[in-house]
Amino acid sequence: MSQTAIEVRPLTPTIGAEIFGVDLGGEISNQQHDAIHEALMRHVVIFFRDQKMTPEQHKAFGRRFGKLHLHPASPNLLEGHPEILLIQANEKSKRVAGEVWHSDVSCDPEPPMGSILYMHETPANGGGDTMFANMYTAFETLSAPMQRFLEGLNAVHDGEHVYRGRYGWNDSGKTYPRSVHPVVRTHPETGRKALFVNRGFTTAIEGLNRDESDALLEMLYDHAETPEYQCRFKWQPGSVAFWDNRAAMHHAMWDYFPHSRRAHRVTICGDKPFYRA
Ligand code: SIN
After folding, report:
1. HSE-up of residue 7 (Cα within 13 Å, Cβ side)
2. Which of 58, 71, 102, 261 is catalytic?
3. For a pocket test of ligand 1, which of 69, 117, 268 has the largest count of ligand atoms closer than 8 A to its C-beta?
4. Is the CB of 117 under 6 A from ligand 1?
5. Is residue 265 among the annotated active site residues?
6. The whole model's pTM is what?
7. CATH code for 7-268?
8. Over the stretch 81-108, which tens digit does the pLDDT of each residue have?
9. pLDDT tens-place string over residues 113-163
10. pLDDT at residue 3 above 60?
11. 161 catalytic, yes or no?
12. Nearest to residue 101, comparing CAs of 221, 263, 194, 228?
């Protein structure tokens, strides 16, 4: 059955919208695809409820937006589907994916454009929400002198401290991505400027001494994590979130131990971040 118009309901004035009237496992018309893309560009993260997708359908939906990304470190992949990352936690977990504010794999030379998380199981007693922050707003609400100062700077994003030893196997021969990206990036589709540093991966601002860099990064993280620049999504089995990693950070709440939560993530390749005045 081909599908027609979708409905977009903003979740907050700043970030997030729920999308109704689309079956992501079905045939998505070009008109619907364009409307979904427009909603993502406008709201930075979009949400769908009550979806049913096979792994193939999940990947096919992702491929409408670009080539699929392969995670540089995680062995937690769905068997037979290396493009699907398993995001799961239970009573044996010592940590969970995404519990520090981050933009996915920002240590990659070409970090992912977007990620599509499909929830299979939510914790028995609630919890396990995900928070998203609008990094356009984070940039736009800085003072003009601070914006000008940051626009000339680059930052190091490192996978080493994030991934080394994390997955319980001997990774001594492995190297993890490390890249330098502009602190303020120009979004390649909207042309808007977004702050592009995050607690998960960013380790230093080039050209500053260690104290200056640490203090400036801490100020920027605190600022970007302002509650008014965020939305918070409460998952149900069948919910899907699609976020734009170029303009959003996210943080997965791990407030449900020892209960289980399980999701599949398809991640879409992006391009090299750049700054254009
Ligand atoms: C992630 O993709 O970083 C995890 C998000 C989540 O589990 O809510």
Report:
1. 5
2. 102
3. 117
4. yes
5. yes
6. 0.96
7. 3.60.130.10
8. 999 999 999 999 988 999 999 999 999 9
9. 999 999 999 999 999 999 999 999 999 999 999 999 999 899 999 999 999
10. no
11. no
12. 221
